Q: What sequence folds into this?
């Protein structure tokens, strides 16, 4: 594997050190009653690398937020049909109490976050 010049603190890596990759995902949903907003999609991303002198590492994250219209509610299958700016999806709502609150004409703001962190950690003794 070739590490480019953007890898800081490369000289601290020793034979036997471990490269650790951590992956995170999160989803949050917010019901907006009587949704009068505009369907939209927003994306943001960021990255950071280890400061000079620290152990080598990097982290990156991406977030996508979508505002979608509730265009269908199926009580039998407990699904909600959402129409966003690019796609229409069916979402199963597991919590019956939450499902009862959703009506056609509402909106949902969904935020999807994904992040990865890579670090080099000393070899176990």
A:
């Amino acid at each position: 594997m070739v590490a480019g010049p953007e890898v800081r603190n490369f000289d601290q890596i020793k034979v036997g050190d471990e490269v650790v990759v951590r992956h995170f995902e999160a989803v949050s949903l917010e019901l907006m009653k009587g949704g009068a907003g505009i369907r939209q999609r927003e994306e943001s991303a960021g990255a950071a690398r280890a400061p000079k002198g620290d152990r080598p590492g990097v982290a990156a994250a991406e977030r996508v937020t979508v505002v979608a219209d509730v265009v269908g509610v199926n009580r039998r299958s407990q699904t909600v049909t959402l129409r966003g700016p690019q796609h229409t999806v069916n979402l199963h709502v597991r919590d019956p109490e939450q499902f009862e609150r959703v009506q056609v004409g509402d909106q949902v703001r969904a935020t999807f976050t994904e992040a990865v962190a890579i670090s080099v950690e000393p070899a176990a003794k």
Q: What stands out?
A: The longest strand covers residues 57-74. The beta strands are 18-32, 40-49, 57-74, 79-83, 88-92, 107-121. The mean pLDDT is 91.
